Amino acid sequence: MDLVCNVAPHAGLNHASGGFCAFITGGGLLHTAVADLVSAAMNRFTGVFLGSPGLVQLETNVIAWMSQIIGYNPQKAFGCFTSGGSMANFIGILVARRKHLSEEQLMQGVVMATSETHSCISKGLMMAGLPQTAICKVPCDDDWRMDPKELEKKIEMYTQAGRKPFLVVSTAGTTNSGTVDNVRDLATVCQRHNVWLHVDGVYGAAFKLTKRGQSVLDGLEEADSVAVDLHKSFFLPHGTGMLLVKERHHLRKAFTIDCDSPYYPDFDSSDVNFYELSPELTRSFRGMRIWLPLKICGLDKWRAALDARLDWTEFFVKELYHMKPLGIEVTTKPSLTLATFRYAPEKSTSAEQLRDYNLQLLRLINKRGNIFLSPTTLQDGRFVIRICILHLRLTKARLDSGLQDIKDGAIAVSQQAGSAATREVPQESSNLLEPVAKRPMPSDGHSDLSPPPSPNPPFGHIKSAPIDHV
User: Which end of the chain lies in a sparser environment, N or C, as judged by fewer CB atoms within 10 Å?
Assistant: First the structure.
């Protein structure tokens, strides 16, 4: 255990650290570790109802809760557990293909996506037997969202050419820029043309719990399927994904086969048999790792934690705007909790030089060890620095320190670039060189999911708040 706990983890990225603001990860709620211990010790089979009726019902309840959160009718919707968001998206592709394409039409199928769509969609299409030429990139609007008018033009164009547009992949929180598509308008187009609308909501769908998230994610309930990855905005450990489908019979159609297997008993068709609703037969009892945290904490604590991170993001971006005299430029406004920025001096410089400046700034920020950020390139070619303010263990103190690190780094890069002498900080912005901690930051509210300050044990202050309904 010394090797596993103290030696092996030292190399690589520490996703469990509160300062990990690169990529999109929630940190790993410790309640799930208990759930995994219990479910592994029980080692019960939940692939069929007959195997463990009570535990299958528990997993069915979890799916109903998640369906309610995104706005589905739990009496009609259903879903399946997956190892993560990529598999949830893959299964969504399979369900759409089974619904709309015959075997003869497979090579005529067309999938509508954008330049912001996650790479797992391309991989999923490949695994589903579709060529990469099946992907049509729909133009985005100025906010990097799929343009509904352009989508309709593409659908009509391919249909007139004898192709079969069958799937639109929308995104509720892109990995690159955090953009949330206008799902309601896309759903209207898809319904008009009888095309399946799948939403990659692995990052953003959970924000439906909040009032602000409900506004940003308006229309999510109109999608035919939604992929959710609970290791992100639900703060659970890796390996906790889910696909939700608006009409449960589509899942059954996609994964139920006629087979001559004499070892299969005669199952009651009214029972929930997960092997008929997903690609898997034998799998772990995944529902426990979602059910237990929900039962212990209650949804209000998740809602408060997400609201706090929305507040923190708004504050953080405002602070970045205040750094304009130091050369900091906000390059994408956050739809949820992901934003991008860069160092861009007033003096004209080449794209290559700007990239070098921002790589240097990124190294300076990450070297401090308060927050860890990542680079990306926007679709317009700008090389930027990316931050996702989501982690369960993120604290106000870390964000304060991170803002100070960005300021210090911008000054250092400016001096090294020789532009410090030509840039004059306006009088009203002279306090920019003061520590950020002097300016108030929004409180994390009453979120009991946030860990208490050291040396208190993590999550030791959370009291039981059972829920039976979402």
Answer: N
Q: What is the pLDDT of residue 271?
A: 84
* Upstream peptide bond of 325 is cis (omega within 30 degrees of 0): no
The residue count for the chain: 470
pLDDT at position 8, please?
80
Residue 166 token pair: 């069958």
Beta bridge partners of 416: none
Tokens of 309: 């991170």
Within 13 Å, how many C-alpha atoms sit on residue 165's CB side?
26
Print the SS3 string covering the chain: CHHHHHHHHHCCCCCCCCCECCCCCCCCCCHHHHHHHHHHHHCCCCCCHHHCHHHHHHHHHHHHHHHHHHCCCCCCCEEEEECCHHHHHHHHHHHHHHHHCCHHHHHHEEEEECCCCCHHHHHHHHHCCCCHHHEEECCECCCCCECHHHHHHHHHHHHHCCCEEEEEEEEECCCCCCCECCHHHHHHHHHHHCCEEEEECCCCHHHHHCHHHHHHCCCHHHCCEEEEECCCCCCCCCCCEEEEECCCHHHHHHHCCCCCCCCCCCCCCCCCCHHHCCCCCCCCCCCHHHHHHHHHHCHHHHHHHHHHHHHHHHHHHHHHHHCHHHCEEEEECCCCCEEEEEECCCCCCCHHHHHHHHHHHHHHHHHHCCCECEEEECCCCCEEEEEECCCCCCCHHHHHHHHHHHHHHHHHHHHHHCCHHHCCCCHHHHHHHCCHHHCCCCCCCCCCCCCCCCCCCCCCCCCCCCCCCC
